[in-house]
Amino acid sequence: MKSFFALTLGLLSLGLTQALPLAAAAATSNPSANGTRFVIDGETGYFAGTNSYWIGFLTNNKDVDTVLDHIQTSGLKILRVWGFNDVTRKPAAGTVWFQLLSASGSQINTGTDGLQRLDYLVQASEKRGIKLLINFVNNWSDYGGMPAYVTAFGGKAEGWYTNAKAQAQYKKYIAAVVGRYVNSPAVFAWELANEPRCKGCSTDVIYKWATETSAYIRSLDPGHMITLGDEGFGLPGGSSYPYQTSEGVDFVKNLGIKDLDFGTFHLYPKPWGISNADGAGWVKNHAAACKKAGKPCLFEEYGVETDHCTVEKPWQQTSLGLAAEGMSADLFWQWGDRLSSGQTHNDGNTIYYGSADATCLITDHVKGIKAAKVVL
Ligand SMILES: *[C@@H]1O[C@H](CO)[C@@H](O)[C@H](O)[C@H]1NC(C)=O
Ligand SMILES: *[C@@H]1O[C@H](CO)[C@@H](O)[C@H](O)[C@H]1NC(C)=O
After folding, report:
1. How much is the pLDDT for 111?
2. For all residues of the chain together, what is the average pLDDT?
3. Which residues form the signal peptide (predicted)?
């Protein structure tokens, strides 16, 4: 999703309901892929999950525990989080940041307001059998992102992928994060970036960068999966904006990269200028490409600002219906909850724990997955 702001502390009070009994305790093998299917804790099949960009930035362990308890009891297995938090100036004490970018010497924050927050999230996820999809940089300026590297090291946004200084520091950061969790069964996969784009560039730019970066991650950690984190632009099946390669992304070409273990795609019809009804075709066309490549597809983010249940339910059903045909998981954007400080960020897409939307898009979806018996 493009825009993220700091947590907004709303006052809406929610009736929280306990949906399902506690899921099984954490196992010790790493998630993997077998053909077009994910394998998690020995189960091969289709999985549901969600996104929480903010959970690694919370400073209260109890809040992290509360959210993870709710995710676990809801039957969601995969949680995508921001593994980056880049700044170009040190914030005031008490504000979490992971990396300070500067041409005169960058700094990775391993302190209590730095990567120790991510450490807690990983440990707490291990206890609950939740699998984390962790990414390393944002295309957007939220939490720094590529624009923060550009501020520090110069050049243009589209030059980030080939800027030697920016890439050297990005790799240092990757090594720092991967090194901390290389042995953790709570890592679902490493993700190169959130929504990498390179407007007007040859698709070779992102392709080459993704090839080199994924090979680098594999050299550091041969035991976990790796993925790109793109929106899935550039593939056959349509002629509207997201099917084009104008953002420098070729989904099919990137899927062929040896060290990328699965494909990712997002769905936001309104900002892309397509209709909600085009969502099913978008899912089907990605599934077909994944099936052809022999790798699973992860429907990694999807959202609308109104009528969440009515609009998103058919997308979930299309994805689940293709469980043996390329699709292996979906993660709605984004998880909403109530923390000690109040309600989490409501960007219009948020599905709040305990709400009617959550019954529709989480409880009923998880039941549907179980009923479909896609666990092989
Ligand atoms: C992968 O799945 C196939 C069935 O589609 C199964 O026969 C095979 O044993 C699985 N491989 C692994 C390594 O689990
Ligand atoms: C991120 O995407 C936007 C939209 O295409 C673009 O303007 C921006 O330059 C991108 N960032 C990079 C590093 O290309």
Report:
1. 96
2. 92
3. 1-19
Q: How far apart are CA 42 and CA 65, in angstroms?
A: 25
Read off the pTM: 0.92
3-state helix, strand, coil in the chain (%, to 5): 40, 20, 45
Whether 282 is in the pocket of ligand 2, judged by its Cβ within 6 Å, is no
Domain total for the chain? 1
From the CA of 47, how far away is ligand 1's center (Å)? 17
Give me the pLDDT at residue 2, please: 54
Q: What is the DSSP string of 102-155?
A: -TT--EE--STTTHHHHHHHHHHHHHHT-EEEEE--BSSSTTSHHHHHHHHH-S
> Does ligand 1 lie within 6 Å of residue 29's CB atom?
no
As a whole number of angstroms, the distance between CA 97 and CA 217 comes to 22
22 is a domain residue? no
**Nearest ligand to the CA atom of 29:** 1
Q: Residue 281 belongs to a domain with what CATH number?
A: 3.20.20.80
Containing structural domain, residue 119: 32-375
Identify whether 278 is part of a domain: yes
Between 21-30, 156-165, 230-239, the lowest mean confidence (pLDDT) is in 21-30
Domain contains 6:
no
Q: How many whole angstroms separate alpha carbon 11 and alpha carbon 178?
A: 37
In the reported structure, the alpha carbon of residue 356 is separated from the centroid of ligand 1 by a whole-number distance in angstroms of 38
